[in-house]
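DM from R.C. (forwarded with permission)

"hey, sorry to bug you on a friday — could you get me a structure for this? deadline for the figure draft is monday and I only need the backbone to look sensible"
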Amino acid sequence: MEENYIEKLTPKQQKFIWHFVTCLSIQEACEKSGITAKTFRNWKKNDAFRNYLKEKQSELMEEALDKLKMSITIAVENLIHALNSPDDKTRLSISKDILTFYIKLMEILKPEISQKIPSIIFVPFHKKDDGTNE
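My reply, with the result:
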């Protein structure tokens, strides 16, 4: 059962926690909340404050991860679209990126598979004057 920590906090503590999760530094959060760093350190000794702060940080992290997950599909589509570039260097660079990302993903998901993937040596190719590859 989840405890309602916010009920145990003062309005000033609640305000600080909101600034803490939205500001770039503790100092900035303290300034915007009108407290000192010493006050923040003292508040961290309070279980309700500490737990509510952790809860808000977790919510923020979960929201950020959800946004990243949603943008992965777009990023992959952009990479695939870039494979159709008329520029050989761009296509080669994108191809390397896709292969590198795939290999890293396999290393994370299935370490036993990554050991079986052979080392890949990329050899740049050049087009001859007649348009064929060397």
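R.C.: lifesaver. The chain is about 65% helix and 0% strand.
me: no worries. Residues 1-69 form one domain.
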